[in-house]
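Example 3.2
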Amino acid sequence: MVLVSSSLAITQRGGEAVGPVGRRAAVPAKPRHPARQQVATSAASSATSAVFSSSTKHMMTSARPVAMPSPSTPGGLQPSHQTARSVRCFTAKKIYDNSDDTLKVNGSDHLEEEINGSERQSEDAEQFEWTKHWYPCHVIDGMDTSRPIKFTLLGIELVFWKDGGGRWRAFQDKCPHRLAPLSEGRIESDGTLLCAYHGWRFDGKGTCTALPQASSPELLSKVCRNKASCVVSYPTREDQGLLWVWPEPGPEGLLSSRGKDPLVPPEMQPDYSEGEATVFAWSLRDLPYGWDAFFENVTDSAHVPVSHHNIVGNRYTDPKPIPMPVKRSLTPTGGFHIGGHDWKPPYFMRIHISDTLKLTLFNVPTTPGRSRHIGNNIIIKPRDPKDPFVQTDKLSVFSNPMPKWLMHVLASLFLHQDLVFLHHQERILKREPRRWLDSCFMPTESDGATITFRRWLERHGELDVYGKASVPWASVGGVGSELEGRAAGAREQELFDVYHSHVQHCTHCQGALRNIKVLRLIIATAAVTLAIRAIYLSLLHSLIQASSPSVVPTVASSGVTSQVAAYLTSVIPTDAWLAAGLAVVCAITALGASKLIGLFYEYRFNHQDNK
């Protein structure tokens, strides 16, 4: 009894929630909302029942450090020396369903044995640290260099800006003076970032360089030498056309980031030699669902022909059993490669669609229930021109040559097909009294990669206020670990939004939107002008005919078509017909431009109408 009560259950101890997956959630010791308290109580009951229903031979205890916010590094996360003990079930039967002895994933015993065995061997020797990685945060050629850019990473509120030396910087988004957001400031001509509240200026290293309120140069120099006047700065890196951020601030972050390279596909490496790789432009989108929901989705190949019906599959004829061979077993830092899904924490996914098409899918946790997706397609052609190259993959439609802005806008046609599922599925999971592995029924092998990802998160994540395994969000200088009022789900307008989720972050799309609006105005003006001209010519012709009836030509008794044409041209002149026709063409083109402009703002989708 003592062993069970000390190693498992969700309890409140010193303002920290200890959960059944071996994580201690950084939750302030404060009264909970009654609904959340009920969820936590239910989760505790479920977890406790699971322990007593499992045999001792299926359990083992372990302890691991938990990533916790540190007051000494504002806005950052660093491993805590505190640990939480946990009781885990490692057998294939018990890991999915602690209530009975039936394996929910039929035919995947080999998958579980290989994954479990490899992770057990590396469990004690290797731990995953969320802040010891480069995170891809933005596509550089789409960033506006003239103004600060707001971004949130792991709950840490940041501001990106380009300094006078031409280097992108990442600061904590608050001025040390009165904590005003620097993302509302300005980039000045001298290459400094100006806080628009009181005019303090900062150079690329975060040092204060100007303070208008200082009464003397001596006071200014004294204040600027004080570390309290400096902005918290994070290491940045520009690589593969992306801006990467190391979420550990200050000298500690610079030291720990040295010698570490971002995770990128082998096809993007300079020494790649298996073929001629064509890397397409990066696409960026802020998603209304979380980091874990994203990777749960992209590790699931079975949903593609159903959810993406009429784009890359047919929901009635294409679904089939999907084998999930293990090419690389699960480890804490190496992730796994199962069934063509090469996943490496914390953000990397490479999907092998075929020998000629690979998908690069990055996802960065921003805030609870939100994430940023950055991805591209890679086409592989044989280096030997004699080898045939046939591109038959249905997803290759998104790899056709097209302007960047068009590719970005058309991405909504694909992304929004399962967006509603993932947004609401995530909120349903939060309300479930049981953990994900116990709440979902997964009887086929096609769920193998998704299950493996969720098991990794339960072992290396942190409990949120709902008692579910989650990203270890920063609680200093960022959001808390709640869904911030989004538990009921966002409105449809917000879910299907394109402008705020992408266009406002992309200079390519902003420029295209402006140009298309100007083009629409020109075409609409032309349509109105041509219509007026057609009316004018018709009225003028009628007046001439009324004053001189003898000029009306006699219609010859030839073919019917010729008679009609002669009559129409006698009533309305040819020039008027031509102007009217061009006016109609311009009006239709302007209408099409309006439809295209609408895609920059919103794209609504529902499966009921996708027949």
